[in-house]
Amino acid sequence: MAETNDGWQTIYGALDSSTLLALLPVLKEGRxxxxxMMKLEERSHEQSEGADAYSAELWGEALAAFDAxxxxxxxxxxxxxxxxxxxxQVLGEQVxxxxxxxxxxxxxxxxxxxxxxxxxxxxxxxxRSLLPTF
Length: 134
What we know:
Number of helices: 4
Strand content: under 5%
Radius of gyration: 26 Å
Oligomer: single chain
Shape: rod-shaped
Distance between the termini: 27 Å
Largest sheet: none
């Protein structure tokens, strides 16, 4: 997973136990918000993929209908082939944008940072004998 600045460990280590305990609900809230943002992004990507598939289907049907109406020796067939290639390129770019959005890890990094800090605080509180250990 992505690396974060580890300077927070020094800062957190210098905090008293009550401050560390007070940070836990804040970190939990941030983690929950990040999870919700990830769910929203996933729904958005699914909708984009559905729209891309629908667009491709419509364009495919339209181009097939035009192709059926054009005689094999008609010069318009070349223009139809160019249009088909351009449509495929645009649809491919849409799919690439959707896939790029899925790889966007800012929210995942945010979530990971919150989880990392929350776990560190719990381990530190256990080390200080304020939380039980297994």
